[in-house]
Amino acid sequence: MAKIISIINNKGGTGKTTTVLNLGAALKKKNKKVLLIDLDSQSNLTHSLHIQDNKYHVGDLLLGKCTLKDCIQNSEGLDIVPSNSNLIDYENQINNEPGRECLLKQVLENTNGYYYILMDCPPSMSTLSINSLVAANSYIVPMQAENIAFIGLDRILQTAEKVKLRMNTHLELAGILFVKYQPRTKFGQAVVSNIAQHSILKNKLFNSYIRQDIALIEAPAFGQSIFEYSPKGRGAFDYMNFAKELTLKHGY
Amino acid sequence: MAKIISIINNKGGTGKTTTVLNLGAALKKKNKKVLLIDLDSQSNLTHSLHIQDNKYHVGDLLLGKCTLKDCIQNSEGLDIVPSNSNLIDYENQINNEPGRECLLKQVLENTNGYYYILMDCPPSMSTLSINSLVAANSYIVPMQAENIAFIGLDRILQTAEKVKLRMNTHLELAGILFVKYQPRTKFGQAVVSNIAQHSILKNKLFNSYIRQDIALIEAPAFGQSIFEYSPKGRGAFDYMNFAKELTLKHGY
Ligand SMILES: Nc1ncnc2c1ncn2[C@@H]1O[C@H](COP(=O)(O)OP(=O)(O)OP(=O)(O)O)[C@@H](O)[C@H]1O
Ligand SMILES: Nc1ncnc2c1ncn2[C@@H]1O[C@H](COP(=O)(O)OP(=O)(O)OP(=O)(O)O)[C@@H](O)[C@H]1O
Ligand SMILES: [Mg+2]
Ligand SMILES: [Mg+2]
After folding, report:
1. Helical H segments across B53-142, by residue range
2. CA–CA gap between residue A223 and residue B84 (Å, rounded)
3. What is residue B117's predicted lDDT score, i.e. its pLDDT?
4. Is A147 helix (H, G, I), strand (E, B) or coil?
5. Rounded to an integer, what distance in angstroms lies between the CA atom of residue B166 and that of residue B178?
6. What is the mean pLDDT of residues A14-19?
7. Regarding predicted confidence, which is higher, B24 or A151?
């Protein structure tokens, strides 16, 4: 049974794409079969893997114009359902479909032997983000330890609760992942401890933090994961650490 | 004649809100009358100024339920048209209005004596972002010096070109502002020089860069601009520097 995980946060620039790419690569290094899905019309994940975006893409898949097999491409040993800047035009059509939030779930009922399926969401609670929550067993919220991100958390949790009630009773919060973390700053620690006191979230903070590492910004320019680009740096260490924590938690 | 400026980038987390807040505060310190407009339903700018979001907001304004005067609030000496998490419900109504992209322009025809009006856009080319381009004299694109942001620039320029052709012949690109800049990194310099060779953009890079400064992340937690929170730090220095460059360019 694949672990299908939505990487979600409607706040922009919170490390969703960086997490899907490098967590995916870390799980692959641990010999898990991994599928990545780019749900963002800005296609950052697709570009990070230097995938050409002129073939079938996630929009075709959701509208039934191709099968999963038709649109999967491969880079760095990772399978990916790419996105495409046309996705923004497809979104209108998708929004008019009955059961428009259940299209991805339907498509993923036939996944062959993937251990992990990671879905990269756009910075909004759009139909595509909801599709990922309806299809997922669990969701991860990457965020920077800062006040504005903390304020935004409740909305994400409420949205997930509605999806769970109405469309996907299995949906669980896998956890909150702190990214771009700067150790030894009082402020970051204060935000973390605020969240640790939150009634719903207190046991939901991953122990692994992803620290600031400029190599995480640079690697996509070369179409590489952090493990090819800077295998001895903090980013590689932290994402492998996080992959270990996740696999232990899920018992694979 | 007010300088009406859209701060726009559909990529998330590129410092739009941080720029609107601190450029606004810098211009205020230079004794310019400044109005900020929060066009993002995630209301980060509104929260950064510790504005209560339970009164009239930008959604009411755009749908004609209140006047500009009714919804302006004040914090830190800055006037702001706040946003509200309800804005996401208003967006459906707004999308059904004839001339839905021209609502803000109409409202801003009666602005009293503001030198600068800065508009904070959400991370998408949504109707609200287009409203800001239709209402603006110029737009600023804040971005991190990284590859993915560079790839996204063309789409922003194309969108602005269509707005200019069809709805706002005055619209100009004021410039590209590099934020979260880390001096002395080869990679950042390489991205900057790539953009400097871009046919449209080469003369459009602001000379001022906003360097990494953790105080810019912390200040909003206290409802403060960088000039109250950390007046001697890099963030304050760089945003004041940028305000000077902008006012010289505009002749105020
Ligand atoms: N741990 C880190 N250290 C340093 N930079 C990071 C780290 N994680 C992410 N970044 C950088 O922060 C920026 C935003 O990250 P990313 O694109 O992964 O966020 P996102 O949530 O996917 O953004 P969007 O909302 O636009 O989809 C990128 O420039 C990325 O390289
Ligand atoms: N110069 C800087 N140095 C360090 N951190 C910064 C700097 N500028 C912005 N940040 C931080 O980067 C994050 C994103 O910035 P901000 O919220 O201003 O971006 P945004 O483009 O408005 O995001 P969104 O797309 O979600 O609206 C915030 O945590 C902010 O505090
Ligand atoms: Mg992303
Ligand atoms: Mg913002």
Report:
1. 58-62, 68-71, 87-95, 103-107, 127-135
2. 39
3. 98
4. helix
5. 29
6. 98
7. B24
What is the atom index within ligand 2 of the atom nearest the CA of B142? 21
Tell me the C-alpha distance between A209 and A179, whole Å: 6
Is residue A16 within 8 A of residue A7, CB to CB? The reply is yes
Q: Are strands A172-179 and A34-38 parallel, antiparallel or unpaired?
A: unpaired
- The Cα–Cα gap between A71 and B110 comes to 52
Phi/psi region, residue A31 (left: phi>0; alpha: psi -120 to 50; beta: rest), is left
Which residues of A make CB contacts under 8 Å with B?
Answer: 10-14, 17, 42, 44, 47-48, 85, 88, 122-125, 144, 146-148, 151-152, 155, 182, 185, 187, 191, 214, 217-218, 220-221
What DSSP string describes B139-200? EEEEEESSHHHHHHHHHHHHHHHHHHHHT-TT-EEEEEEEESB-TT-HHHHHHHHHHHTSTT
Q: Are B58 and B83 in contact (CB under 8 A)?
A: yes
Does the structure show a pLDDT above 90 at B54? no
Distance B153 CA to ligand 1 centre (A): 17
